[in-house]
Amino acid sequence: MNTVIIDGLSFTLPLFIMAIGGIYSERSGITNLALEGLQGFGAFVGALVAVVLAGHFSTNSQIPYYMAMLFAVLGGMAYASIHALLCIKFKANQVISGVVINILAMALTSFLTKQVNKTVFGAASDKFVLGVSVRWTIPILSDIPVLGAVFTNIYPFEIMIVVIAIVAWYLLYQTKYGLYLRACGDNPHAVDAAGIDVAKIRFIAVLMSGALSGIAGISFAYSISANFSSSIYVGYGYLAIAALIFGNWKIFPTLGACLLFGFARSGGYRIVQILQMPSSYSDLVMILPYALTLLLLIFFSKHNQAPRALGEIYDKGKR
Amino acid sequence: MKTKSNGLKRFFVNCFGNEKYQSITIPLFAILISLIVGAVIITLLGKNALSAYQNLLQGSGLLPKPSYAGYKSMLTDFTSFLNAWTPMLFASLAVAVALRAGLFNIGVSGQMLTAGFFANVLVGYSEMPSVIAKPLVLIVGIIAGACVGGLIGYLKYRFNINEVVSSIMINYIAQYVFSFFINTYFVDPVSRQSVSVSTGSRLTLMDTLVGDLKMDIPLAVVLAIITAFFIKFLIDKTTLGYELKAAGASPTAAEYAGIHVGKNMVLTMVISGGLAGLAGVTYYLGYFGSIQPKVLVSTGFDAIAVSLLGNSNPIGILFSSFLITIISKGSTYMSSAAGIQAEIASVITGILLLFSACGAYMKQKIKLLEYDITAEKSVLQKQEKGEEQ
Predict the structure, then answer these.
(1) Which residues have CB under 8 Å from A191's CB, separation 6+?
(2) What is the rounded average pLDDT for all residues in chain B?
């Protein structure tokens, strides 16, 4: 039971922060299918920095870890600016742009990973091996039965994500910027009439989604495989999108959806382990989150209310 | 100064020609830019970009290589290029049909895998004579692909589920479920892939001795080209095609005109899925003879680039799929001949996608420039008139 909670949370939280990124972008009116590519590219930049720095610090040092986090955020933002440019400046179809960004991210990062390994480290490898992250156990709280698992063996990124999620919630619902952002998604003309630059608000929102996806990407890289390779692209970005659709573009219901995905996944693995089934059965467990997503979407998509101007190219002349 | 920039503008606009030619010139411009960007990357790596591009053509059998192994020549390279081109053409047509109806079928890879798996299991492992087996493979492929495509369309029509999300979920489900079955029942312990299909059911005649050459003859390539023209006919000349395009251009307007948009949506996805199924069988039972578990082929995603580049026009796609296949097929030879990572091919394709996505913007920009030029012209003419008086 404990491992289910521990593994479930370490999967849920990155997914959640990525979904919040998606919420920012979509509430501002920009469809963001690019989350997958954003998290991958962010993770690539973070992992690259970690690998380069690792030689300069002792093996137990956690500085590369935090630097990786920081640079994953920057990398995600930089890469997200392409999506923002395509959607806002070049008026491309937002769905197509998102998918294009994902395909390019996959191609670029796997090419660059090989190339950097070859030229900088002189090794033929298609992955960056990351150090092992420390894991914390909070002394007294972890002794609580069942719930104590929440405070056991937590990755530093989990705490970071919780803090950032709270800040993101505050920003979206309690500040003027958040109000403008949400208005951009529903009625950009009203925002424009109030003298506020729609393009700028949306641009910042897409950059935010890049930053948050970057955190998610590097967290997945550290927690799931302890290295960066093209195996980072297994559709978690799309899972995050499904979570936010299921959560009706609101932050708290989205957390619920992410928890469901996380525990379905870790619970499934645990069942395979307990029943001592051969490893090929874990393939069947892997489909749980995806199948669950489809099922949930079947039941909830109809009643959902997407932001009204979502996916529409903002055209000042059109009323 | 002003007239100079005007001349530049006019040159730029003239390059693209009028609206009729822009559907050709804008993709050409995108290709040119991405080839230049690719060349810059290759040059930065310290390699000769021109010879690298030459290698791409050599690897595809379009230029002679410096030396050939026994039984091989430029012709055998070209037939194996055609072998790779066939599934790409089918897959791109699948994407294009959906795009025309305003749907984005990103699940082509999953539909290909489904079709390939069922054709493998139902026909590929049986001992049927090839006259029966080969058509049967095609039929099974079409049905399997159409079922998956239809499901995606139905989910969108009935439950309002975004087709991109549902098809990606189905991609992953297909990938893991079939990998489970292959690993449990059909695995070849040596190659770690599914057991190879019988030669009778294979759509490509591999290593066939023709004269003194051993070549791979892709039988389905003819079918693929015919299909392209058939789809062109279907879209341009039939009621179905008209309704499909109308639903894609504006669903509400189509609904007012009495077109059943939901039914069309499902039907479009059935056709698109069927084409993807053909791509699947020509890939898994033609180009390859087995299925690698846990891997979705990139063909389904590259097909999006091909389709965008070809303006979702079947004839345009004949050309654009040819080009993209040159890049992806030739990259293997390029990486061995020039020592450049083969992944550069997908980077170039990705950049190409990026620029193709901006096609609508380019069109608009050219129009604006044209207005600018005519406006400036009339101002100049007025000034001249004023001076004369």
Answers:
(1) A180, A183, A184, A198, A201
(2) 86
